[in-house]
Amino acid sequence: MKKNFAILIFVSSTTFGQSGFVDEKKFQDYIPISPIEYKGIIEIYSRDSSGKMHVDTSSIKVLSAFKDGKEEILKLIPHYGMSLTIKTNTTEGGLKFATNALSAKKNSYEMVFDFTAYSSQPIYDNKKQIIATGKLGVTTRLKANIITKSKNLNLSDLFQIGIYASQEKLTGTLSIEIIGISSPEIVAMIPVPAELNVTSVQSSLQSLAAIKAKIFDESTRLHPQILAIRPETTTNTILEILNIYKSNPSSVEDLKMNIQQQQLQQQLFFNNQQQQQKQ
Fold first, then answer.
1. Strand 225-231 vs strand 31-36: parallel, antiparallel, or unpaired?
2. Contact between 18 and 100 (Cβ < 8 Å)
3. Between 275 and 22, whose confidence is greater?
4. Phi, psi at residue 93, to the nearest 5°?
5. What is the torsional sign of CA 102, 108, 113, 114?
6. Contact criterion met (CB below 8 Å) for 165 and 147
7. pLDDT more than 70, % of the chain
8. Minimum mean pLDDT among 231-235, 241-245, 255-259: which range?
9. How far apart, in Å, are the Cα atoms of 2 and each of 26, 81, 154, 186, 220?
10. Which alpha helices (DSSP H) does 181-228 contain, by range?
């Protein structure tokens, strides 16, 4: 499945405000995580030669293993977006997050720029209550870990951060992660982590552009993962949500039961439609 795919990368902060960090439980956007496997199952819709609709189920692991499964995976992750999340530690040992912020002097920050193809999937607790939304997809992730030497540095502008590094207002490293996207060509394009400066920023962005252009290549395999989590309540931290998700073995079985019920309802609906057309 070949598509034309144009990408604009927004790394300038000219439209960002100067809002700062909020505590983890009050942060209302997605928080990037190390990728984890998706436990759910996938619905696949098709029509036979007579026009009858069929609904089958599979898993990401199965679809990713076969070349023909890529088209279904792309249907599963129809949204594309660029996001920036900035993380810092509190003096009490907690975490704070922002999507745009100014720095404090002598502080450490982790900045994650994600370009993601994704869909949103609910995450349940063991009582079958939705506790979070997971961003299921594939991503090219640019990560900057920095230590500031000056205050009021704009942390929302990647190019400006490279300039700050050249001016010795901060130090840091830059690295790239390719998550859920694999091919021999892409592996060869991933640069090694580098010291943060204007040159490494430009080089990393060029590498990301080349890698993203390979997503729809026939030889590229996609294996969507849970890439980020947005809590739906202020009760749990991200770590607590992850522990609940990983320790809930019944989630797949519950989803299977729900999908079987949906399939029956859908099949009855399509059968009724066909009977009405014949009449």
1. antiparallel
2. yes
3. 22
4. 95, 5
5. negative
6. no
7. 77
8. 255-259
9. 41, 20, 39, 17, 11
10. 184-189, 198-212
Burial 89-120 (b: 16+ CB within 10 A, else e): eeeeeebbbbbbbbbbeeeebbbbbbbbbbee
Residues ≥6 apart with Cβ < 8 Å to 274: 51, 52
* Per-domain boundaries in the chain: 22-278
Between the two ends of the chain, the Cα-to-Cα distance in Å is 39
Tokens, residue 6: 């144009």
- Determine the residue type at 112: V
Q: CA quadruple 83, 93, 121, 42: dihedral positive or negative?
A: positive
Residue type at 85? T
Q: Is 247 helix (H, G, I), strand (E, B) or coil?
A: coil
Token pair listed for 209? 């552009």
Contact 116, 93 (CB under 8 A): no
Q: Tokens 């080349």, residue?
A: 210
Residue 276 in tokens:
């009405």
| Tokens coding 199 | 């040159």
Helical spans, DSSP H, in 28-120: 60-65, 70-76
The answer to whether residues 8 and 115 touch, using CB atoms and an 8 Å cutoff, is no
Q: Which amino acid is located at 217 in the chain? A: D
Q: Say if residue 79's pLDDT is above 90.
A: yes
Q: How far apart are CA 270 and CA 205, in angstroms?
A: 48
pLDDT at 14 over 90: no
**What is residue 43's three-state secondary structure?**
strand
Is the pTM of the predicted complex or chain greater than 0.90?
no
Q: Which of 11-15, 120-124, 152-156, 158-162 has the lowest mean pLDDT?
A: 11-15
Residue 275 has pLDDT above 80, yes or no: no
- The band of 12, judged by pLDDT with boundaries at 50, 70 and 90, is very low
CB 112 within 8 A of CB 72: no
